Amino acid sequence: MSTLDTCPAAGDQAPERTAGPVGGATPPYAEADPAAARAEMVARLEEEGSLGPGQVRDALLTLPREVLMPQAYVRRSGPGEEPPCWDLLDWSAPLDRPELLGLLYSGASVLVQHDGEPLLDRARGTRSGASITSMSTVMGMTVSLLEELDLRPGLRVLDVGTGAGVTAAVACQVCGDQGVVTVDRDQHLTDAATARLGNLGFRPQVVCGSGEQGLPGREFDRIFVSYTVECVPTALVEQLAPSGTLLAHVTSASPSWPGLAVVRRTADGQITAELRAVEFAHRAGHGMARIWLSEEFRQRIATEPGAWTQRSVLAPPADSDRGFWLAADHLLGGLVRDFRSEHLAIGAPGCGSWMRAEPVGHQCWSVTVNGPRDIWKEIQDIADRWRAARSPDRYRLCFDEDGGQRASAECGRLSWHLSAPRSHPLDEGATS
Q: How distant, in Å, are the alpha carbons of 201, 218, 380, 394 from that of 276?
């Protein structure tokens, strides 16, 4: 599963909650033994609980990732170093194989495209400047979603966002390639996927086009969107066959608190859907607005005295209260969390407001707030509503006749619309 349709700087941004770890230690392989590396990767995924027995596991043990990704980038420049620098490793170069094998089977994201380049017939070597524009997603998240899809032989699968072709390859292996369609907006990626899936003996239909439009007039038993969207593409819902399942990550403009939309069509044709709070999600789709905390803004949050500081016996919601943070993200709008901070630190880049909360003693918090928005009060107000709604971690997702989408708790006390991106009034027209 890969994130084509990523934002232009996707390879350079801090992962926040949108992609899981991009880097990570790569196992050293003195000898390039792909079969052993595959077995080790599968064993790690099983140990961490992402992967269970079944056909997805069997496919991962069979599929040689070095055929799908015979070249991959490794970053050589340090954080913040300009211009950024990457080396393109090549499987055909014996000296590259141990490091490349470690990248491919570490379980971390694999960087496959720099600055929108063609993937076929590239020369190995160094690239600098610009950014990484496509990557194969963290395997733990990939396999958990593939397990959720419940792939079986004979199913018709639409893979939206071809990228490196990993999801399409697993679908071909499990379901048979005649029923698999993979679509991507980047001709370079679809050309490479066609060639490399063919090298594995797979001949799915590979389409260059808008992923959110899918294939009008067709029906699919499984639809998988491998980039984040602001709402579920209605064209894809219409293409979902009876007893089918669609998965897509959904976020606001903030990358901090994502959700997973799980859409099902019943055997009699009715649509049911829910939005689950999750820890990580795919990178944002092409053209999707994103807000970030600059390094300078992070430092201000961490060090400045703020407009006021108070002691509070009200604890902020826990990181594990993901259902709260998902709701707060959509209901408040414009907030980004600094996950690098040891304690809770949140900023509103649009207007420059921020807050930090640190524990001081037993059941007491030091809360510092700055800017026109009182983010601490906003959070506590939503927390009260969330608890009144029985602290949900998932929400019913409803599709209105006019094309709008609404997420709501079962008791109806907490709801918001997904159809349009939200922003807080104080953020409008302001800068950080």
A: 36, 27, 21, 4
DSSP 2: B
- Rounded to whole angstroms, the Cα distance separating 299 from 37 reads 41
229 with 364, same domain: the answer is: no
Would you say the pTM of this structure is higher than 0.85? yes
| pLDDT tens digits along 308-336 | 999 999 999 999 999 999 999 999 999 99
Enzyme catalytic residues = 144
Q: Is residue 425 part of a domain?
A: no
Name the phi and psi angles at 254, rounded to 5: -80, 140
Per DSSP, what are the bridge partners of residue 168?
none
Beta bridge partner(s), residue 246: 223, 263
Bridge-based pairing state of the strands 180-184 and 205-208: parallel
For the chain, the domain total comes to: 2
Please check whether residues 167 and 131 belong to one and the same domain. Answer: yes
Domain that holds residue 372: 295-388
* Structure confidence by residue, pLDDT tens digits, 353-393: 999 999 998 889 999 999 999 999 999 999 999 999 999 99
Helix (H, G, I), strand (E, B) or coil at 127: strand
In a domain, 145, yes or no: yes
* Rg (alpha carbons) of the chain, rounded to whole number: 22
Q: Give me the amino acid identity at 121.
A: D
Q: What is the pLDDT of residues 214-273, one digit of tens each?
A: 999 999 999 999 999 999 999 999 999 999 999 999 999 999 999 999 999 999 999 999
Q: Which two tokens stand for residue 136?
A: 């194969």
